[in-house]
Amino acid sequence: MSNNPHPSGLLREFKYGRSTIEYQLMFEDRKNLAITVNPDKSVVVKVPLKSSLDEIQAKLDKRGQWIVKQLNYFDKFHPLQPERQYVSGETHYYLGRQYRLKIHKGPDNTVKLIGKFFIAQTTKPGNREHLKLLMNEWYAIHAQLLLDRRVKLYWEQILRSGFRHLEIQYRPMKRRWGSYSQNGTITFNIELVKAPLNCIDYVIVHELCHLIHPNHDKGFYRLMESIMPEWRSNKEKLELLGAR
User: Is CATH 3.40.50.10860 the classification given to domain 91-241?
Assistant: First the structure.
């Protein structure tokens, strides 16, 4: 059990110039402080368990200009993709392309992609939560199939023969397309399959590079450049979609 007197996960604020920035403070078993600005403009600050509030504030003051710059950058991508209502005629995405949703009442609960349409057959055509579940199940299955194939394309190129096993998880994520944990596990957002293929590959390359370079240091970006020289444009396209 941690002896840190400060609760973790609470929202806090700090001022930088004329800006008041809200952030989520997370105390974790880690060595270094990390600041993340997400496309939805949420700010997450992860710090070692024994960090003092004064130390955290000093780091925020030092990185304040960068944080404001990132928030201003993400401003141009708002509003993000709106929440889907799961009604007939609504647009849904797969691999960067738009498909119309058609809902039919039937004896089964299935979703199929046929031509330019998602065809949902369901026993509960008026139940939006049920339709959302069906669509999410379809995305989850296709996300795992597609991402497994794409990971294999970059595995040897990035990791060489040094990695015999790689644990990959797939789940819905509200704020991120992918994440890397210090135990070597990579998690992908199942909604990543809504993005164009080059954007999907950017996330895969980004997370695989973290297995070699855990931090966003010069070595990390050199490796990114060597594998995917156009990664910046792919990143920007992905941010236009928003993790939703």
Answer: no
